[in-house]
């Protein structure tokens, strides 16, 4: 029996793939990339940017490379089954190059769903490594290094070289930050204005109608309501029309991230993690895609399912064939007949598809999957089946009620489902809406109607909102910044750097005056309203503003949206063998070098803003600080220099530069020499700064924290301090009163500042791990210990 080795990227796929291929096949994982370009020294700029790759400097990765080498040597045949994107193609090439496998003859397979049919079909139709894809990926790596490693030192030189959130620029990271910055500028410059929206409640059923005019002040509102009190309002109705409501489009990477954010309130990163689990379990197709097409086989299956479920083929979309990859390929072939034979050599299952269930009959997945995984699968299933179904048809008409002002009227619309189409999937009867539709149908047009009451409410006009993570992903796609596989990492990166923070925004309290006309009496209502409050939005921080404004000023030509989009298009052309990869690198290299040279020839000082004669706002090693130069508290030294931690939230750099802040408004806290972190051993755990550096105290005990350096106290967490205290020889796990429950010699439940957590430390470990209790459904204080250990092994660390 032959001995064939299949190499994938993720180990989670291996057992399932082996079960589908049967005896004679062994599946192992590369665990992602195995080699890297670590610096510009790895690129021979004078030799067409030839890269010199090196093994990723990680002990586990190096050991795994040895394992791969042994497995490859023991195998008669090698099949490379890394993911079907540029990164996957590059990993396949690296495996060949590193282990001496022939690139022209080593089998390369791709699949977009982990099902028996897809895997076996892929093995029957292998192909060669696509070197155009490999060159495109390598060009992207080189471009990222050229931009990042050349421009980032300029940020360090002219703003700050921080430690905790190291300043950096990036070919796609910086335009992503610019999107958030541009939105913040629009928010700041939006000419907010108080206006009045008016709703009239008419007929005996007190049905609301909205006025098509906003009033700008209280005088206009009062005049309108006074005139309305004695006006004879006339009701009219338009003719009935049939309106189509189109089904949702198939799910792409960016779209699933947006839908999951709206429906499940989770981040793009978490969404992709859940999708990865569903994909590796064989429930959905590959999740990194910008395709809105399905395989021809799937469309046929979906058509059968829809017909069987709803007993008629009228529920199938009349143009469902346009969602087929086969149809898309036919259109492409008409445009370009070049290399048709090569393209058609691939089976239809290997064409890129939108994200979909692998089995449309399966509405839900088994109960052994986690709740979020089940919810996301349900969203994918529902959207997929809806996208293949016919548009919904509604009968609709508009209702109007006149006012004394020409072309100013109240309006509402009425609709009745005529054919549910795709909406039948999640249809809920709305009897009130249907009754309202029939009521207006029976109400004669051009007749008088009486108002019940008319209300004018004060609102704030032209309010722009901050972006959610999902909205940022949508804009990255629209602007052509990055690709599906990089969207979530770009959203994470701008936050990791300290440029952007996901946070709640407090609203502004504004005194307002609302009006209500009831019968012929106008009532004025004084009310304080909050405007502009937002939750979980991306807010650019002072550090991000400094970085992006500096880069916009000096490197706009390589970080503007068009340049970034064009560069992505050039990389796509490399994939199609339309452009030589190193020419793309050369063009970018000369542009970046020229911009850096121009910057260094000018006169530029490091960023700082003088607040008064003694205080200066600047960027320190761990974020913004206030530099104080002057006398100490005893007035004995006129040359003392102290750095006080500055606020990061809510600081307007324009106001700062205009001298509109006092020192007290900018200092993060006044008592900066002591911070209470929480409770430890029944005592408050205090973090202090003394003559010889940082130290912690609890009760009559103290512990030096010199390993934390001279960091601001507010940047140090309870977990960091506990790590030092509890790993010292003088601290025993068993004797610590902060323990809620001891599970085993290595595991205990403890109480922390932010809630209970798992403390895990074996005798061989030098530092403990602090793990979350999220997901444990029983009461961990009284549950069976074996039950907890079993959950711990599955959720965190196998014991």
UniProtKB/TrEMBL annotation:
GO biological process: DNA topological change
Reactions accelerated catalytically: ATP-independent breakage of single-stranded DNA, followed by passage and rejoining
Sequence ranges assigned to domain Toprim in this UniProt record: 3-114
A single GO molecular function term of this UniProt record: DNA topoisomerase type I (single strand cut, ATP-independent) activity
Organism: viral metagenome
Stored Pfam families: Topoisom_bac, Toprim
Keyword DNA-binding attached: yes
Keyword list, A-Z: DNA-binding, Isomerase, Topoisomerase
Protein name: DNA topoisomerase
InterPro entries per UniProt: Topo_IA, Topo_IA_2, Topo_IA_AS, Topo_IA_cen, Topo_IA_cen_sub1, Topo_IA_cen_sub2, Topo_IA_cen_sub3, Topo_IA_core_domain
Family (UniProt): Belongs to the type IA topoisomerase family.
The UniProt record lists the keyword DNA-binding: yes
CDD domains: TOP1Ac
